[in-house]
Amino acid sequence: MSLTVDRLTRTFNGMTAIKDIDLKVQNGEFVCLLGKGGCGKSTLLRTLSGLDLDYEGTVSYNATPLTGVREEIGIIFQESRLLPWLTVLENIRFGLKDHEQETLNRVNRFIEYVGLTGKEKLYPKALSGGMSQRAAIARSLVCDPEVLLLDEPFSALDHFTKLELQDLLLKIQAKYNTTMVMVTHDIDEALYLADRIVVLSSQPGMIKDIIDINSPRQRTRTSQDLQQVKKEILTILHV
Amino acid sequence: MAKEVNQSIYPTIQLNKIGVTPLIKRLMISSVFPVIIILIWEVLSQIGVFESYQLPAPSAVLFKGIALYQSGELLPHIVATFTRVTIGFVFGTGAAVILSVLVGFWPLLEKFIDPTIQALRQIPSLAWVPLFILWMGIGETSKVTMIAVGVFFPVYLNLLAGIVTVDRKWLEVGKVFGLSKRSQITKIILPAVLPSFFTGIRTGLGLGFMFVVAAELMGASEGLGYLLVLGQNTLQPDTILVSIILFAIIGKVTDGGLKLVEQRLLHWQDTEIRGRSK
Question: Which residue ranges does the record assign to the ABC transporter domain (chain A) (predicted)?
């Protein structure tokens, strides 16, 4: 798997949202796109997903230009976007084409994996934000994506739920070697999760710096090393 | 939790202690007001505040209703009116569904047809009456057509609004999971527009009853609207009131039926209905 962005520029009605982005995401890597609100990081993620094709430059998946959404690329939005008229179970198997026993077993395995056992028959209105986002993650995972794009997936959740779900992502990545690209404005989140942090400037969004986090997995959120990097990033962002 | 809240709102009414279901409890609470009104009306009629040739007492209206029923006159009137509304409703809804789906899914057709429909909508539907009578005579066809026209507009407008405003966020979910155009429609758009559809048909049904009265007033030999004309011509306000009350009852019951279906199908909606535990 490789995801390559080459001189990507996206304008909306003459306003440049992102400009000259070059980025190569390696297989199994966890990349965080970090920047202030309105810096075009979500725009960048949408072009990677194939939902937005109105850009200049190229986005290639396995060396072929992206022409639309692909099965191999899953996306998790800021809101869970569960369909309110389907139960948790129906939502999670939404992307699956067949309903054979093997598939259903797979669905059940993921329901258990994200910790939603017992909630299968509930409708989204009965779920908390964290549970909804777990269901959304399971919905993507059952389709076996190679890349998971995450657009500020935990920004609407309370702090503790957020920490739990961050660990869930790491667990998923370790088990399935899923490549992850996550948009976030939370530096601590990026420091805890990322192998590489892409720092974006605002208006237009351009890559300011790319920081490799070499600290091994099972990071301690408050470690000295990470705090040092945090200072660095804050300086880059002029905060 | 919900029960406690309920009790604190209505501290003096604790009917559930004597084994009354919530439905019956609701019915009892909601009938207090009309019962009081009817009692006052009855008393005022009995002591002669209202002249009986203008506003007869509720009891007189009730006896008139029973008399009409026993003579076998009443039921055919009810059936006639109900049948007209049903047929008109089905045709009006059918046409509205077909057109709004076509217009909703074909932007070109929207530009082509929708402005005309929007213009036609501005014509008060009753203005069609003389034309329809001229075209179709005074029989059933013109009546049912009128009702269908009345039902058509609210269903068309609500459904179309529902189709063109389906949340982009949900459509994107369909895209992300590679749904075909057909699956997009059946799995996302249809369920998403169901709430607007129900708003449309419930308004439509209400208008259907309005138009059946108009249709029957302009010339009919049976139906509740005919009963209104009969009461007017024979100076019998009790007959008129029987008809009016029957309209209220039939309207309420049919709307209640639609509401029940709506609640069944839309139970997933995240709306809090006040005073009712989920």
Answer: 3-227
The residues that bridge with A207 in the sheet, in sequence order, are A200
Mean pLDDT (whole number) for B32-45:
93
SS (H, E, C) A196-216: EEEEECCCCECEEEEEECCCC
Counts of helices then strands in chain A (DSSP H, E): 7, 10
Nearest CA in chain B to A86: B268
**What's the burial of A105, exposed, middle or buried (CB within 10 Å: 0-12/13-18/19+)?**
exposed
Q: Tell me, what's the pLDDT at B1?
A: 39
**pLDDT attached to residue B193:** 93
Of B173, B192, B269, the CB nearest to A81: B173
Interface test with B, best of A85, A91, A140, A151 (most B CBs within 10 A): A85
Contact A142, A113 (CB under 8 A): no
Which residue segments constitute the domains of chain B, with CATH numbers given?
Answer: 65-266 (1.10.3720.10)
Identify all chain A residues contacting B170, using CB atoms and an 8 Å cutoff. Answer: 81, 83
Note the pLDDT of residue A17: 82
Give per-residue pLDDT as tens, B63-82.
999 999 999 989 999 999 99
Position A151 scores a pLDDT of 92
Q: Which of A49, A44, A50, A56 is nearest to A68 (CA)?
A: A50
Taking the CB of residue A208, how many other CB atoms lie within 10 A of it? Answer: 18
SS3 B117: helix
Q: Which two tokens stand for residue A43?
A: 């725009």
SS3 content of chain A, % helix, strand, coil (to 5): 35, 25, 40
**Where exactly are the structural domains of chain A?**
2-237
Contact B239, B227 (CB under 8 A): yes
Cis peptide preceding B237, ω within 30 of 0: no
For Cα atoms A229, A233, A238, give the angle at the middle one, nearest 5 degrees: 145
Torsion on CA atoms A98, A149, A154, A106, rounded to nearest 10: 20
CATH of domain A2-237: 3.40.50.300
